[in-house]
């Protein structure tokens, strides 16, 4: 019955629950925005303050703060406080690897 067991493998594939589907779709939504990609790419190399990010990427501070809030809610970035300054860094190696691989793919396509 070896041949019969391979046909049953499709029935054993785990169905994705609603929470997992939501997180995956939100993660791809995060990676689908050019500004968020630029921010994540910058943070993949080292941490930066909101002002640093805004300056390096020629963005408004309010835009950076808004995008960082979105990314933080998805746990793609984290921050540490030093005095009154927040320093952001990447917080999810899996997603950052996907981003870097996709960038690499786009540059060598």
From TrEMBL:
<protein>
    <submittedName>
        <fullName>Winged helix-turn-helix transcriptional regulator</fullName>
    </submittedName>
</protein>
<dbReference type="Pfam" id="PF01022">
    <property type="entry name" value="HTH_5"/>
</dbReference>
<dbReference type="InterPro" id="IPR001845">
    <property type="entry name" value="HTH_ArsR_DNA-bd_dom"/>
</dbReference>
<keyword id="KW-0805">Transcription regulation</keyword>
<keyword id="KW-0804">Transcription</keyword>
<keyword id="KW-0238">DNA-binding</keyword>
<dbReference type="InterPro" id="IPR036388">
    <property type="entry name" value="WH-like_DNA-bd_sf"/>
</dbReference>
<dbReference type="InterPro" id="IPR036390">
    <property type="entry name" value="WH_DNA-bd_sf"/>
</dbReference>
<dbReference type="GO" id="GO:0003700">
    <property type="term" value="F:DNA-binding transcription factor activity"/>
</dbReference>
<dbReference type="InterPro" id="IPR011991">
    <property type="entry name" value="ArsR-like_HTH"/>
</dbReference>
<dbReference type="InterPro" id="IPR051011">
    <property type="entry name" value="Metal_resp_trans_reg"/>
</dbReference>
<dbReference type="GO" id="GO:0003677">
    <property type="term" value="F:DNA binding"/>
</dbReference>
